[in-house]
């Protein structure tokens, strides 16, 4: 069953996706993209409210179908789209929120997200941040045993009767995952890439920290959290990662003699069907799906997680499954509009053509962070077949290559 943790949703004005081509022109919910650019200027981010609502509902229904053991809570990552208007839409859809740091916690609360529907993540959380989370009733995901001292102080600051709802962020053993990670240009396997990632409590420290929390006044150790991450789009890798989550959870349960998690948070990182992280030059001009959709991810992940727990003697019955989608919820809900300033060519020593625009990679940060390759269309001639390969570039003084 799906646990709705926000207000009742309002009616959706339709589920038209951005990127619809009508009479050769790009439209967003019946609005012409060229006219939007003229009205508001460029560069311009355009987000479809209808698609955000549609995606939120698909995530909720997909995971609710796959997890019959207990409630499901969807906690979209604030960092994936830190736009207050979008966050208010998600609140209206009954979504909780994954937040990182004091600014995101404040923004989520200001946007009406109930405190108990917030998952506070991030490293080295200080006394003040933990105190605000406790007062709001937010869940606190500990990332390091070193945070315990600040947690104790924050509980004391909150006064008599205060309780901190805490989960442990665990680091599963992915050693067996030898397929190359999409995050690594040199073909390093998922295991090596995941184990190099800083987040999470090392396995050799998790049991001692859990015992300390169980003995700590004012602490409710509610569950565990693992961020699966978008290392690969294929379902087999996601099934294997989910099984490893079940394994590390079962190991903690066995070590604690009687404790079992009420909440199991699997984070996010799901690919989207046209995910730019898995696009290559061979996909330019093709908007076909390159990755599974949320229904397939939900089916595979929940089955592997439930079966993995059961096989290791941990009954998932009654456990709340939490999911923290980020770009998978937003990626097909928006467009970035930019105006072509000119076309520049050179023939020597290497032939090259640059389409110069008024935007920048600074506004499309995953170009820099993860090497995303964005699908590109000419908004006023969206059905026209391309006849030449070019570099689409921004207007800054850096290389600023949006799509090579």
Question: How would you summarize this macromolecular structure in one to three sentences?
Answer:
The chain is of the alpha/beta class and 404 residues long. It is built from 12 helices and 17 strands.
Folded structure, characterized:
- The protein is of the alpha/beta class and 404 residues long.
- Helix 2 (49-66) runs parallel beside helix 10 (294-311).
- The protein has helices spanning 33-40, 49-66, 84-92, 101-110, 127-136, 148-158, 190-196, 203-214, 235-256, 294-311, 327-330, 366-369, and strands spanning 20-22, 25-28, 31-32, 44-47, 72-74, 97-100, 118-121, 139-142, 164-169, 219-225, 263-265, 320-323, 334-337, 340-346, 352-357, 391-393, 401-403.
- The chain is built from twelve helices and 17 strands.
- The two termini are 45 Å apart.
């Amino acid at each position: 069953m799906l646990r709705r943790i926000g207000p009742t949703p309002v009616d959706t004005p339709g589920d038209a996706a951005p990127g619809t081509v009508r009479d050769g022109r790009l439209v967003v919910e019946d609005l012409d993209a060229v006219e939007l650019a003229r009205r508001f200027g460029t560069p311009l981010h355009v987000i479809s409210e209808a698609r955000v609502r549609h995606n939120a509902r698909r995530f909720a229904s997909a995971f609710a179908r796959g997890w019959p053991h207990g409630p499901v809570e969807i906690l979209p990552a604030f960092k994936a789209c830190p736009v207050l208007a979008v966050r208010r839409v998600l609140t209206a859809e009954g979504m909780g929120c994954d937040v990182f740091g004091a600014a995101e916690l404040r923004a989520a609360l200001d946007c009406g997200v109930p405190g108990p529907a917030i998952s506070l993540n991030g490293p080295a959380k200080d006394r003040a941040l933990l105190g605000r989370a406790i007062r709001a009733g937010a869940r606190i995901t500990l990332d390091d045993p070193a945070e315990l001292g600040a947690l104790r102080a924050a509980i004391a600051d909150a006064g008599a009767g205060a309780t901190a709802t805490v989960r442990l962020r665990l680091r599963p053993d992915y050693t067996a995952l030898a397929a190359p990670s999409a995050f690594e240009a040199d073909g390093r396997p998922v295991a090596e890439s995941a184990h190099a990632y800083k987040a999470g409590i090392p396995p050799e420290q998790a049991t001692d920290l859990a015992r300390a929390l169980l003995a700590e006044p004012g602490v409710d150790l509610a569950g565990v959290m693992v961020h699966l991450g978008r290392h690969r789009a294929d379902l087999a890798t996601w099934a294997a990662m989910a099984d490893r989550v079940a394994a590390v959870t079962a190991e903690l349960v066995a070590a604690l003699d009687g404790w079992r998690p009420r909440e199991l948070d699997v984070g996010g990182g799901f690919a989207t069907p046209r995910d730019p992280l898995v696009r290559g030059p061979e996909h330019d001009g093709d908007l076909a799906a390159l990755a599974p959709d949320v229904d397939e991810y939900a089916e595979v992940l929940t089955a592997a997680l439930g079966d993995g727990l059961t096989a290791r003697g941990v009954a998932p019955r009654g456990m709340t499954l939490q999911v923290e989608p980020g770009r998978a919820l937003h990626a097909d809900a928006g467009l970035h509009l930019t105006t072509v300033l000119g076309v520049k060519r050179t023939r020597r020593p290497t032939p090259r053509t640059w389409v110069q625009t008024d935007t920048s990679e600074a506004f499309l940060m995953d170009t820099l962070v993860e090497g995303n390759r964005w699908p590109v269309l000419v908004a006023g001639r969206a059905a026209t077949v391309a006849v030449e390969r070019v570099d689409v570039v921004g207007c800054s003084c850096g290389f600023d290559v949006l799509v090579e």
